[in-house]
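User: Design a sequence. Structure:
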């Protein structure tokens, strides 16, 4: 009996009926994907729900269930494990075509993994990027141009956010602070270091918390009304940061919170909030706008006390020369 030709046509995404009887390249003639194992599908889905599957990533679900899947479902699963960063780019019909199985098999696989449907899995993949998880999509010819345009949008948004601050009140509090403490975790740590490096050229008593090998408790316990704290709270934040912000909101010190839009809840008592966009068409978040905001904040502080700032800059420069720390560049 001659083999039936493979049907590569892509059905519409909303059509979940009609299982393909295509013969696959490996010679396997798949059994009709109808209700043969519908009971198993329901059982797996219920078991997955009981085990809290919804909190798991697609990769975790696939690796846990791989050996329990049918050969056709394993074909899709192995493709996804090799190309999971690209799931956000596909629809069900495209995934069906790329793996050479029917769309009904695609739909059934995602239900067996604990998703309501394919769209829920795709939305989860898309939300990962918005939460800061690096997701690498296939490069495009205009990637550099799109990257540049997104950076420009971020800068415009960051400058608009600065304009919304009460800069006079903020600068006055930062300038008058006896000590200026800067906090940043994970990807925000380099931002904290950079702000400290800029401000040390203008004033004394600037520190990044916590110090190596120390915890925050002993560092912030002594904060008073004459102190100021700058907290960088960018996405993929450590769990303890929310509690720290609540504590700082009740402390007598001035607090400037620099964060992206994913931080939706701002504790009462934190009066200065600066939003900073991190959006990028690339796999990683962009901190160019945050660096620009740091530049402007430091420059504004310099201009508010130009005499004192210039005096500190001269002392630092003279010390560089005395120690011969810097070259001619």
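Assistant: Done.
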């Amino acid at each position: 009996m001659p083999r039936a030709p493979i049907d590569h046509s892509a059905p519409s995404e909303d059509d979940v009926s009609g299982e393909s009887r295509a013969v696959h390249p490996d010679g396997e003639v798949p059994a009709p994907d109808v209700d043969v194992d519908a009971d198993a599908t329901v059982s797996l889905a219920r078991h997955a729900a009981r085990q809290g599957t919804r909190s798991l990533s697609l990769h975790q679900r696939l690796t846990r269930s791989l050996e329990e899947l049918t050969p056709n479902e394993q074909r899709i699963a192995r493709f996804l494990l090799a190309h999971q960063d690209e799931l956000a780019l596909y629809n069900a019909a495209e995934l069906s075509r790329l793996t050479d199985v029917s769309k009904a098999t695609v739909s059934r696989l995602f239900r067996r993994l604990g998703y309501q449907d394919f769209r829920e899995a795709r939305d989860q993949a898309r939300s990962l990027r918005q939460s800061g998880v690096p997701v690498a999509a296939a490069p495009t010819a205009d990637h550099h141009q799109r990257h540049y345009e997104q950076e420009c949008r971020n800068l415009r948004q960051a400058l608009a956010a600065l304009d919304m601050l009460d800069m006079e009140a903020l600068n006055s509090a930062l300038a008058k602070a006896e000590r200026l403490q800067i906090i940043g975790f994970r990807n925000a740590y380099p931002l904290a270091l950079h702000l400290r490096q800029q401000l040390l050229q203008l004033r004394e008593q600037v520190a990044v918390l916590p110090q190596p090998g120390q915890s925050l408790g002993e560092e912030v316990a002594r904060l008073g009304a004459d102190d100021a704290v700058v907290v960088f709270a960018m996405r993929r934040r450590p769990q303890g940061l929310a509690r720290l912000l609540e504590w700082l909101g009740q402390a007598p010190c001035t607090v400037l919170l620099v964060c992206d839009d994913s931080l939706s809840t701002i504790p009462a008592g934190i009066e200065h909030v600066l939003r900073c966009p991190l959006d990028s068409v690339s796999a990683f978040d962009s901190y160019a706008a945050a660096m620009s905001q740091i530049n402007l904040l430091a420059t504004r502080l310099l201009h508010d006390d130009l005499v004192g700032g210039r005096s500190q800059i001269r002392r630092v420069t003279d010390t560089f020369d005395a120690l011969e720390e810097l070259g001619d560049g």
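The beta strands are 179-184, 206-209, 227-233, 254-259, 272-275. DSSP finds 13 helices and five strands in the chain.
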